[in-house]
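Q: Sequence in, structure out?
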Amino acid sequence: MNGAQSLISSLADAGVEVCFGNPGTSEMHLVAALDEVPAPRAVLCLFEGVATGAADGYGRMADRPAATLLHLGPGLGNGLANLHNARRACTPLVNVVGDHATYHKRLDPPLESDIDAVAATVSGWLRRAGAADDLAADAADAVAAALTPPGRIATLILPADLAWTDVSWSAAPATGGPGTVDVVRPIPVADEVVARTAGVLRSGEPGALLIGGAATRGEGLRAAGRIAAATGARLLCETFPARLERGAGVPVAERLAYRAEAVAGQLAGVRHLVLAGAVSPVSFFAYPGAAGDLVPEDCQVHVLAHGQEDLTGALTALADATAKGAAAQLAAPERPSPPGGALTAETMAYVVGALLPERAIVVDEANTSGPWLPGATAGAPPHDWLTLTGGAIGQGLPVATGAAVACPDRPVLCLESDGSAMYTISALWTQAHEGLDVTTVVLNNSGYAILNMELRRAAAAEPGPKARELLDLSRPGLDFVSIARGMGVPAERSVTAEEFTRALGRALAEPGPHLVEAVVPPLV
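A: Exactly. Output:
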């Protein structure tokens, strides 16, 4: 057994079932080793940003890490934007990055770079492998690190000569399954913190509970709903949750707005803001003459749980202290009727609300075309909503790909803006190659509409001719139907609400990947 086989076997023993890869020469022994081990499943991505985004989507839905296989520093760099999103999502993820052989690095070959420095910007755990006999332990340590609450990116850098070096029999991994990984458990929140927070929420002063992480789903969300119902606190969730459970019969959590002006309205009058798995709200960008801290001056911020602390346990204890017998406000089952007439961002949202399947996974990178989606889908059958956690666009198609691999029994709907889609459009090929049940809606308004909006907000300027050139996607126009069909994905274009209703209905009813191009006017 060589080092590569030892590493792949150890990943499999630790519970890693999927490897999203775009390998190169320095990783060929790892590629060969994938045939020697029944797991993990190997999924080819044509760009490293698709591989890292897919691993993010997989981890968000599976609650366990996938591995990526990346080629040297440039390959890692190509995947960095979606690793940034994964870091912000606290997704468990294991990067395996190949490097030059130890004795070759001193020659400064063309692809030589400082991999450690690049990886450190997104990794919560980073190790450069030092011996072939240690690779099995390195892999197990990486998985354990990725699973450290609330989840993080673990990066293992593997010099090529360690991959091809034979390991001693004693260094080979023992088959023991995921139980062989010593996973760090969440840290209990102190009783006095729970009691103090309960006192704040029962004080009679206006309060809000801002949730993130594990509190946006499952037991944590139900406990938060009970707390809000019993105390009168406003239940909010972070602007871009990694995974939000919502729909009919699910506790209602209002997402914090993107625009600072809207957040000011949501928090107006709040005297106590309790953070549960979320950070204190700030604006995404600085604007001339505007404050970046969005907490009102007369509002106190209280932290219930964060980081490695047991968020679900803390919310359950807080619910027991404040909400005995209280029931959370649940979303009522309600769907809009499919509209007719012009296809706009608003009518698009009503069609999605009318047709969204039960247990769907919605990956939302609709950006400026998405304002009506929360209201239109609030009463749809229960579903999960995955968002752009780190703000680095190009995550929608890859995250949808990984979510479909993690949950093959659930339909995935990706709502994607046209500009963002072009960053990682090759994810469509992987969806076709793997036969994944992903329906992609590309909202084509022929421009970077969000940048038009930000130009007016940040620079207080109307686009001039040079600015328009940097924000326009219409010369030539993007033909997403042809692009999708060229990658093996059935596709059709809609220009009216009726056409979109029929096209989306057909795509959702048929297994496998589909794309619907929705031609909509820009909002700004």
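The chain has three domains: 3-165, 191-322, 345-519.
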